Amino acid sequence: MFQQISRSLLVGLLFCFGPTFGQETPAVKIHWPAIIVAGIDFEIGFSADAATAPDSLLVYLNGQAHRLDFRGGKAAITQQIHDKSTFEVQLGQISESRPYRPIPLGWSILPPLIAILLALLFKEVYSALLVGLLSGTLIIGLYTHDFWGGLGFGFYSLVDTYIIQALNSFDHLAVIVFSLLIGGMVGIITRNGGMQGIVNRISRKATDPRSGQLATWFLGIAIFFDDYSNTLLVGNTMRPVTDKLRISREKLSYLVDSTAAPVAAIAFITTWIGAELGYIQDGIQNIDGLDENPYNVFINSLQYSFYPILTLCFMLFLIWQRKDFGPMLQAEKLARSRVSADDSSHHHTNSLEDFAKKEGIKASGRFALMPVLVVVFVTIAGLFYTGYSPEVWHDHNLSFLRRVSAVIGNANSYLALLWGSFSGVIVAALMSLGGKKLQLEEVVEALMAGFKTMMGAIMILVLAWSLATLTQELHTADFITGKLLDLQLAPQWLPMLTFLLGAVVAFSTGSSWGTMAILYPLMLPAAWRLCQEAGMDYEQSLSIFHNVVSCVLAGAVLGDHCSPISDTTILSSLASGANHIQHVRTQLPYALTVGSVAIVFGTIPAAFGISAFILFPVALLFLWGVVKYVGRTTD
User: Fold this and answer.
1) 65: enclosing H helix or E strand
2) Dist CA 394 CA 400 (whole Å)
3) Which of 130, 572, 574, 582 has the lowest tally of Cβ within 10 angstroms?
4) What is d(CA 424, CA 373) in angstroms, rounded to the nearest whole number?
C-alpha cells in the first residue's frame, strides 16, 4: 500500500514539476491497439498536442515505470504477450486498463488459405475471397469481443472496416480509375473501328497461332516500364487478334501475365525500380562491412534472376515449338477446334464482344494506335515529370541510364498512369468525333460500355486488397517467415529458402511488392550475418548475398503468378477476357515448372559457386527439352 501511494505521489509530482516545470501538463491521450497477435510486438500509443507536448513523461504500465520520449506529439510503449493479459496505464491521476486475449499466430494463415483453396476448388473467386475475408474478421471478432459480439463484429467489419480501408487508399483508387479509363478507351477504339484496323494490320503478319503469340510476346517485352500498363494494353490490344487466330484466352492471359511482372522486375528503367531500391536500402542500412549502395546491389543481383529470365524464354520455347502441356493444352485444343472466332462460350462475361465496330464505317488502325501511343508516351513523360530531380539529372558522375533509372524510380507511377490513361480517352474521343466515326452520344455509350467491362475485376481487386489488409493485421507473413527460418540451414541453402519463402508469402498475400517490403529488411541482414558467422570471406558472402537479393524478387513474382488473389493475375485475366480461375489453373503448371528449374539448375548451384554463365545455358536447354518431350502439338 505504501509503495502504491508513493508511486502515485511521484507521478503526480512529475506531472506538476516534470518536463514542463511550472506549467500545467498537457492532456495526453492513450491509444490502445485494436488487435494483438500472440508473440508479435504491438504498441500502446500516447499523443498530445504537438505544440505543448512534453519532451518526456513518466508513466506506469502494470506497475512498471516507462519514460515516454515524445516526437511530434507522439510516443509509444512496445509490448508482447502470449496469453490473456490485462494492461493498466497510470498517468498521474488518470488510470485506464484494457483486457486482451491475443490471437494465436497460427490462425493467421487460415483466411488466405481458405480463399485460395475455395477459389481453386469451386473455380469462383468472388465467393472464395468473401469467405476467406469473413473467416479472418470472425477470428478477430471472437478474440476481441464476446461470442455474439464477435459474430456481429466479424460480419459487419468486413464491409465497414476492411472494404472501406481497401478503397481509402490513393494507390488503390488510382489503379481502379486507371483500369476504368483503359477500359473506356478500349470501348471507344473498338466502336470507332480502330481496334479492327489494328487487327487487320497485325493479321497480315500474324497469320497463324505461332506468329500471333510471338507478336503478343514481343509487345509484352516492348511495354517494359510498368506491369499494369503492360497487362491492360497488351491484353486488350491483342485479344481480337488472338481470337481470330483461335488462340485460347487462357494462353493470351498467360503470355500477358508472364511478360508483365518479370520484365518490369528486372529492367533498369521501370516503375518497380524505386520500390525495389527502397526496400533494398531498408535491408542493408544496418549491415556492417557491405561496401555497396542499393543500386549496385540490385545490378549485381540480376545475374541470379533465374526465374524472371527463364520465364520469358520458356514462353518463346512453347511458341516456337507449337507445343503445350497440362490444362493449357486442353484450352488450346478447344480454341483450335472452335467453328469460328465468335464461339467463345468458355469466356467470361467481362469481354468486349457486346459492342463491336459501328456498322458502315471503315476500319482504320490509326484510330486505335494513336490513343494507345498517347497512353504510353504520356505515362513515360509523367514518370519523368514526377521523378525529376535537378541534383540527380545534372550529376555527371552518373551514367545516362543510371540517371534515367533514378528519375523513374523516384516517380509517382500512379499519377503518371492516371495522366496517361485519361489522355488516351480524350484523344480516342476527339479522334472519333473529328473523324466522324462516332457521334457524341455514341462516344459516351462506348465509354460507359468499356467501364462496365472492368467492374468484375475491380470487385475482385477490392476484395483481394481487403484480404491483404487483414493478413497484414494478423501477421500472416511473420508466421510463414518464422516457420521457414526455424529450419536454420547452411548459408548456401539460404537463397533457395528465400525463393520459396517469397513465393509462399506472395501466393498467400497476393502482393509481390508487399512480399519485397517484408522480406528484404528481414532476409538481407540475416544472409550477411549467416555468411559471416560461417567464416566466409567477403567475395563468398557477397555472392550469397546477391543471390538472396535476387531470390526475394524472383520468389515474389513466382508467387504472384500462382496466386488467384494477386492483382496483376486478376488484371491479366480481365484484359485477356479469360475466366480468372481458368487463367490460374492453366498458368500454374508452367510457373511451377520454371520455378523448379530455376531452383535446381540456377539458385542452388549458384549458391555453391557455379557461374551463371554456365547455369543459364543448362537451365534453358533443360526447359527446351521439357517443352519438346513433355509438350504436345496444339496445331
Assistant:
1) strand 64-69
2) 10
3) 130
4) 8
Is residue 625 helix, strand or coil? helix
- Which residue stretches of 206-248 are H helix? 209-222, 227-244
Burial class of residue 278 in the structure, from the number of CB atoms within 10 Å of its CB (0-12 exposed, 13-18 middle, 19+ buried):
middle
Please state, in angstroms and rounded to a whole number, the distance separating the CA atoms of residues 103 and 87: 16
Q: Which three cell numbers stand for residue 363?
A: 476500319
- Those residues whose C-beta lies under 8 Å from the C-beta of residue 192, and which sit 6 or more positions away, are 357, 358, 361, 367, 368, 428, 431, 432, 435, 437, 438, 446
Paired strand residues for 103: 37
Q: How far is CA 153 from CA 146, 157, 158, in A?
A: 10, 6, 8
Backbone angles phi, psi at 553, to 5 degrees: -65, -45
Query: In degrees to the nearest 10, what's the CA dihedral of 546, 551, 552, 556?
Result: 150
Among candidate residues 344, 260, 238, the one with its CA nearest the CA of residue 569: 260
| Contacts of 213 by beta carbon, 8 Å cutoff, 6+ apart | 242, 247, 251, 255, 319
Q: CA quadruple 163, 168, 171, 175: dihedral positive or negative?
A: positive
Contacts of 459 (CB under 8 A, 6+ apart): 126
Amino acid code (one letter) for 254: Y
| 3-state secondary structure string across 372-428 | HHHHHHHHHHHHHHHHCCHHHHCCCCCCHHHHHHHHHHCCCHHHHHHHHHHHHHHHH
CA distances from 591 to 117, 337, 502, 579, 597 (A): 18, 26, 14, 18, 10
Phi, psi of 143, deg, nearest 5? -95, -15
Averaged confidence pLDDT in the chain = 82
What's the Cα-to-Cα distance from 224 to each of 253, 269, 279, 376, rounded to whole Å?
Answer: 17, 8, 21, 11
Would you state the torsion angle of the CA atoms of residues 425, 428, 431, 433, taken in this order, to the nearest 10 degrees?
Answer: -70
Find out whether 462 and 163 touch, Cβ atoms under 8 Å.
Answer: yes
Number of Cβ within 10 Å of residue 250's Cβ equals 28
Q: Which three cell numbers stand for residue 585?
A: 489453373
Radius of gyration in angstroms for the set of CA atoms belonging to the chain, rounded to a whole number: 27
CA angle 414, 418, 423 (to 5 degrees): 150
Q: Residue 314: which pLDDT band, with cuts at 50, 70 and 90?
A: very high
- Give the containing element (helix H, strand E) for 512: helix 512-533
Neighbours of 545 (CB within 10 A): 29
Does residue 334 carry a pLDDT above 70?
yes
Calculate the CA 169 to chain-centre distance: 15
pLDDT tens figures, 116-142: 777 767 766 678 888 989 999 999 999
CA distance 418 to 422: 6
For 319, phi then psi, to 5°, come to -65, -45
622 backbone dihedrals φ, ψ, rounded to 5°: -65, -45
Dmax (CA) of the chain: 96
Instruction: Tell me, yes or no, if the pTM score tops 0.85.
Output: no
Q: Inform me whether the pLDDT recorded for 23 exceeds 60.
A: no
Q: Quick check: 226 pLDDT over 80?
A: no
DSSP state of 78: E
The whole-angstrom separation of Cα 117 and Cα 119 is 5
Q: Which of 286, 266, 193 is nearest to 224 (CA)?
A: 266
Confidence of residue 430 (pLDDT cuts 50, 70, 90): very high
Q: How far is CA 488 from the centre of its chain?
A: 28
